[in-house]
Amino acid sequence: MNILRRTAFERLLDAFRCNGLAVIEHSATRASAQAPGHSSADRSVSILDVGGKVVMHCHAGENTADVLAAIGLTMADMFDNRRDLTYRYPDAAWAKRKAPQQRNSKKSFEQSASPRGGLLYRQDRITDAVTVHLVEGEQDADALATIGVPAVSARSGASSAHLANYAALAGKHVIVWQDKDNAGRARVARIEPILKGIAESVTVVEAPDGCHDAADAVARDGHIDHVTTVNPSSDEPDADADFWQSRDVLRHIRSFARARYVSPDAVLAAALCRVIAAVEPTVVLPPTVGSKASLNFFAALVGRSGQGKDAAAAVAADCLEIRDYRGKMVEILTRQPGSGEGLAATFKARHASSASADDEPEGEVIRTTRAHLVVPEVGTLEAIAGRQGSTLVGELLKAYMGQSIGFDNAKASTTTSVEAHSYRLCLTVGVQPENAGFFLSRGKDGLPQRLFWASTIDPTAPEDCTDAPAPMTVRLPKFAPADAFYVLRIPDDAAAEIRACRHRIRIGDADVDPLDGHANLTRLKIAVGMMLLEGRTVVSDEDWRLAGVLLDRSSRVREHLQSVLADKRRKANRARGHEAAEREEIVAERRDQADRRRVADAIMRKLNRSDGWVSRTELRQTLKGDLRSLFDSVADALVDDGAIEKRDAGKSFECRLSRDWSRFGPDLKKAS
């Protein structure tokens, strides 16, 4: 037998037979074979052709590489061309899996495009599917397809799965396969919150005992009837557990949030806004890059209507009592913005009493220095920003940096200008995914990178929660002196990382987005918030590390929103395309009807002026060249209507008016 045949499936079967081992072919893509060294009754090796390569499972527990070596093959022989296998995606992208050339070679991939926002593998084949299986790799999706199970996978495997565009799974029941390794569990932890905001339902499963993944299960059993359902709440990712267990205040926030049935991430985001808003504007970040920087902080709570954005903001106020270093409760002024100018007006000094704006000011000067803007829905900001002459976006960008806001006018009573670093402004805003364009469309200004994005989804929440603990007291430290700037100390590693990023931006490194500088500043502000929650005055290395964990979550939420908006744009474009095509079709149909009417009129006029039968050739010659292609179909329609008669004339035909043509006559005679 020739073991160098075209496909890997055929190659393996021939190799087993050439070595005197029994083979049973169950179908064109699935077979069982006798394991080397086992009895002739043994059929413990299952072989599955998944298109371009094979998957092999040995029930006897033998290593795949050992089985192949025993029949004179290598791991590369599991690929049709022994070099690689290219997977094609619906968006014309491709991913190439390299065939291992040595026994212990690591997996190697090459791809044509970034996984960010990429479509799913086999996405174009699940349009009508109600239930779809989401697996880790293309091989798994192809394996499930061999048994008729609709399946898709994201580009680049486990590590970048959260970057994919999952919009195609909207409204579907999604079964997520979790591979039995740390990377597989981390993948599910990243994508499950994203899917729960898109799919009708999400169920996490693992392959049956003795199998690692979907392809392994299909190769061994030929079905997936024995998968195991995974309860995410009982298998929480270690990284997530480590974060919430790292500090008493974080454990408290999560317990309190879950007791109130809201997302801990969203509550923490709102709590960071509140604790930073409780600190006077004289507390600033050091001039690591440029000049000193403000702590002003913005957070977006992301979720669909009813998923707890407002509730999370309210719970943040309930779970922590923020007091100053003397133990006095800190009052935090809460406002909703009315305009760009209104931001500055919040901090404008005013006198306790005066009869009118034109009178001499009287009484004590009162000035607000700290405020927390709470906006339940981003649509409010969008409506304000959409007004003619609105300055809201520009003022928000300046406020985040602590720059001077407001405007100077001729009259002091109408001047709203507020000096830089003389105000503390924090913003908490609710964002429905479909409405996130207000922020994300302003990426060139760095607005999305200035926000901390927190999801209102808590995928690992237990079904039953204990009663909420009593509120925890957060006592802020004393920042002295109170009448001068207090510059915070930050870790050397944080400063070095920020400066390294800035240097690459400064020299024009094409691999660095200049807007990443805003992300580093946001991370540093989160670190300060973590510091304040513990009542300290120095940002620690641990604060910086935990802030990195939160910023990574924030980036994933923002990337999910970008994929949702991209899908929304695609759907809108398709709808506009359908409308345009329909309009063109209507216009073409009307034009065709008019042309057919002209042909019918010409035929009837010609026959009305003639006596008896007229040949097809003579009738067609009365028409303009661009109308002659319609002659035969119009003539047949006139015959069907009883207006004319038709008879064969050699290889052609000829026509005359019907005896009942008089009902067409008046108009024809008038026209002739």
CATH architectural arrangement of the largest domain: 3-Layer(aba) Sandwich
- Main beta-sheet strand count, sense and barrel state: 5 strands, mixed
CATH class of the largest domain: Alpha Beta
Q: Give start-end ranges of low-pLDDT stretches.
A: 1-5, 233-239, 354-359, 664-672
Write down the Rg: 36 Å
Give the rounded overall mean pLDDT. 85
List keywords for this structure.
Rossmann fold; alpha/beta; 672 residues; 19 helices; disordered N terminus; single chain; five-stranded parallel β-sheet; flat
Structural summary, described in words:
By secondary structure, the protein is α/β, with parallel strands linked by helices. The protein folds into four domains: 1-82, no CATH class; 111-235, Dna Topoisomerase Vi A Subunit, Chain: A, domain 2 (3-Layer(aba) Sandwich); 238-539, Rossmann fold, CATH 3.40.50; 583-671, Orthogonal Bundle (Arc Repressor Mutant, subunit A). The chain is built from 19 helices and 26 strands. The strands form eight sheets. The chain has a five-stranded mixed beta sheet with strand order 9-8-10-11-12. The protein has a five-stranded parallel beta sheet with strand order 16-19-20-14-21, with helices on both faces. A four-stranded antiparallel beta sheet has the order 1-2-3-4, sandwiched between helices. α3 packs parallel to α5 and α16 (541-609) crosses α19 (665-671). The termini are far apart. Mean pLDDT is 85; it is low at 1-5, 233-239, 354-359 and 664-672.
